[in-house]
Amino acid sequence: MKERNIILGIDGIPFELMKSLSEKGIMPNFKDLKRSFYFREMKSSIPHISSVSWSSIITGKNPGEHGIFGFTDLIRGTYTLNYPNFNALKSKTFWHQNHEKTHVIINVPATYPAKSLNGVHIAGFVALDLEKAIFPKKYSYILKKLNYMIDIDSSLAHQQSQDKLFDQLIKVLEIRKKTYQYFWDKLDWHNFMVVITSTDRFGHFLWNTYHNSENIGHSRALQFFQKIDDFIGDLRDRLKEDDNFIILSDHGMEEIKQNMNLNTYLEQENLLKLSNRHKNYNRILEGTKAFVLDPGRVYLNKKGLYPNGSVSKEDEIGVIEELKKIFHELKYKNQKVIKRVHEKYEIYNGALIDKAPDLVVLENPGFNPKGGIGKKIIFEDDDFSGMHNDSAFLFINKDIDLKTPKVEDVVGLLGGNT
Ligand SMILES: [Zn+2]
């Protein structure tokens, strides 16, 4: 009998929320599952964002090996922003490690453009063109028939209409369900992975609707999570006896208190100097010691690497110490906002560590670290309601011995030699 693996990704749902939704009876299907099997908090990637975390989940590698450190990067040797996509992923996904087996992969973030595989792949966000988001192309008519959507229309989030947003989230969720059901029946597969991303959008735009029971959107939030649970139940009911069923998130979510414009802080501390000519990071002038890319990735402005590089090899250790000190000193209303500053060697290993940020700043709850250039003030309110944290979760329907699971561990749990 062949051993199959079914992976359901639920983007942006923290361990505590998943636990409380099931305990409060809002997610009865998941409650049943978690009662008899393994369910734990899982540490997200560093930084805890979807592109990095999913890249680790599907390859079993850390960013120093797979090369995805964020949604953005700089083109090597320049200050020009670049958006790494699936082609920039330098480690093999589990579906590219085994061509003997058939895989169905739906909506995994950061897997655009879709590449050839034995099976079907529909890429998740950021996916610019639906035609390039599916392999093989012969199935694109199915997506059209299903009115397939990769993501919700996020512009709705700025129109202050909670109802319209909820309608979209549920619509996209239902389309995802129909799509997975189609391919579930259509192919004889070994590995089946589908990711729900409506949950992350819920977290960013509507987090308070669930967490504040007075909120007018509260009942819709409960209804939304019931739909997520229906999705889980629908999958569970299709399982065969020997199937491995994994449910996981890539990172968690929490209420946002303030955005922190870290480059503005570096400017105030005289570590970042900007011209008024050019745009974005191209404004960086000589004399700059460091700059930050989203979310809290700090790069030394190294001589010989960047056009206006100003930190020599001998000065690197000193600048790193200075940066750590000032980040630890940063306060909002007397409250420390940075929990930890990691050096790259503490958190990454592998051949691509050269591309890694020199430091990664981890925030205290609610303080959202930002890159971006030219903001006037350090601390700012945000229109959004939620921001990521590092508390993901992992469920699997068997007994395993993993005390503190990490996103890199997931591939190792797949049965049947993937
Ligand atoms: Zn998100």
UniProtKB/TrEMBL annotation:
Pfam families: Phosphodiest (PF01663). Gene3D superfamilies: Alkaline Phosphatase, subunit A (3.40.720.10). InterPro entries: Alkaline_phosphatase_core_sf, Phosphodiest/P_Trfase. Signal peptide: none annotated. SUPFAM superfamilies: Alkaline phosphatase-like. GO terms for molecular function: hydrolase activity. This is Uncharacterized protein. It comes from marine sediment metagenome.
